[in-house]
Amino acid sequence: MSTHRRPTIKVVDDPDALADLAADMIARILTERISAKDGPVTVFLSGGSTPRVTYTRLRDAEVDWSRVHFFLGDERWVAHDHAESNARMARESFIEDIEATFHVLPTHLESPAEAAQHYEEVLAEVFGRDEVKADLVILGLGPDGHTASLFPGTEALDEYERLYVANWVPEKETWRLTATYRLLHEAHKVIFLATGIGKAQVVAEILNEGVGHPAHKVMQGMADVTWFLDDAAASQLELD
After folding, report:
1. 166 forms bridges with which residues in the sheet?
2. Torsion angle, alpha carbons of 226, 148, 45, 74, to 10
3. What Cα–Cα distance (Å) separates residue 21 from each residue in 15, 55, 166, 193, 239?
4. CA-CA-CA-CA dihedral for 204, 73, 71, 191, to nearest 10
5. SS3 73
6. Helix 15-36 crosses helix 49-57 at what angle (to 10 degrees)?
7. pLDDT per residue over 140-184, tens digit each?
8. Could you tell me the domains of the chain?
9. CB neighbours (10 Å) of residue 24?
10. 211-236 burial: b if 16+ Cβ within 10 Å, else e
């Protein structure tokens, strides 16, 4: 039986307005979590162009960044300085300008599987081994319905024990490293960011029709989920 909550949907005019609104919400969530708990406040970041714009807005946010630990929701099997590295994008967008802790994937290791295992060990050290409950997960959305590196038809979709795995993506002929549904389902809050007409059909399929895309299955856990959409991405939605 599904336990998912009904998501909150926020629609704004354009990508710039989305970045402003999403960054404001992220800063507010982090400040609330910093006040509500001891220890680190944990955030998993998405790659992609839409999150990048939001991240740049966080440079000047009034957050006690010293309490925040950033992780990556997924990563490509590339070096940290590679143009396609999610870690590089996050650093250049805002992390190098704030005083937070950033845990990157060890893509210098011999294999993707070894890197994923090492990242799980880092998670256990930061969270404690009994519970890994992220304070905030930021996710993007692909036109095929993938999120993080949970691509349709890949083995990671069936993983509910591990928190982080190496995932072979046949259509891209490459390895990805990705958080699993277990980690996403147990998060405190999840934010999806999607812009552009190219996302309109898959957004409608997920939010109106309940099509079982990987991104839809993120909502089948206990996380409080909010979708931020611009008018183009929301153009096929039937909103109440």
Report:
1. 177
2. 160
3. 10, 12, 33, 11, 19
4. 10
5. coil
6. 60
7. 999 999 999 999 999 999 999 999 999 999 999 999 999 999 999
8. 8-192+211-230 (3.40.50.1360)
9. 14
10. eebbbbbbbbbebebbbbbbbbbbbb
User: CA 64, CA 48: separation in Å to the nearest integer?
Assistant: 25
Identity of the residue numbered 20? D
Cα 8 off chain centre by: 16
Kindly report the pTM of this predicted structure.
0.96
What is the helix (H) or strand (E) element at residue 44, kind and residue range? strand 41-45
DSSP string, 25-40: HHHHHHHHHHHH-SS-
- Sequence-distant (≥ 6) Cβ neighbours of residue 131 within 8 angstroms: 186
Positions of E strands within 110-173: 136-139, 164-169
Contact present, 106 and 151 (Cβ < 8 Å): no
